[in-house]
């Protein structure tokens, strides 16, 4: 049995967008910044990926491009600091706090499932780190149990076994305020990925209309929110980690059936501090890209400094229309 999205009563954004932006305006913006084309071969490989019962998945919101293309590397980890922090937390808890082992590059310990599907631009990527990226499916397939796997895919491209009611793999989903995600996406697409070359205001409009992650932002979030009480799924908000990281560590440890002694928890909390992560070469990806900025700011409410009051109002309208039939709260 596959759990379908249609049963979730997710609100589509078409009518909402018509109220926020004119069709002529958006047609012009999409003409200037076209989405890329769908690559069915890569998607088929992902959907057929074989899941193991001992797998542990960390899933963030879908990346840029709405996954209509795998022709260019999309370096927009829209909740990068959130998923990276959870990845490191999960790996260390399960590996009994092997800080020496944690010096290995995070993408080798906790690879991104879909990374193989991207063309890796030589001007940004250190070729020595290619294997866990360009051959990510084979790399993961060869890993010993338990495998630690990260994804930034929309639901419709998930491995089918992961959506099965018989799936026993553990899934941790990370949500973040969509306005802050938009800001993070803009900076990573414009300055780290060199994928988008327009203004921030135009990016916000495109973002809400599907340019960066499309309706999959709400599809993914509400899908996991509605399944959050299931044994194999843990739903965490990024803002929870900022407000009370030790509490989130306890929650994750309980979910993984790995109780943590107080002294271990204190060291892990310090290890996962933003400044510590930003300077950690195994986590910050700066040994991979010839540009800095993978871990950028990580603060709550960054959108208030970047967005106009008018744009915030439009986002609020979009958010309300998207979740009004759900019990999810921002």
UniProtKB/TrEMBL annotation:
<dbReference type="InterPro" id="IPR027417">
    <property type="entry name" value="P-loop_NTPase"/>
</dbReference>
<feature type="domain" description="Sulfotransferase">
    <location>
        <begin position="82"/>
        <end position="326"/>
    </location>
</feature>
<keyword id="KW-0808">Transferase</keyword>
<protein>
    <recommendedName>
        <fullName>Sulfotransferase domain-containing protein</fullName>
    </recommendedName>
</protein>
<dbReference type="InterPro" id="IPR000863">
    <property type="entry name" value="Sulfotransferase_dom"/>
</dbReference>
<comment type="similarity">
    <text>Belongs to the sulfotransferase 1 family.</text>
</comment>
<dbReference type="Pfam" id="PF00685">
    <property type="entry name" value="Sulfotransfer_1"/>
</dbReference>
<dbReference type="GO" id="GO:0008146">
    <property type="term" value="F:sulfotransferase activity"/>
</dbReference>
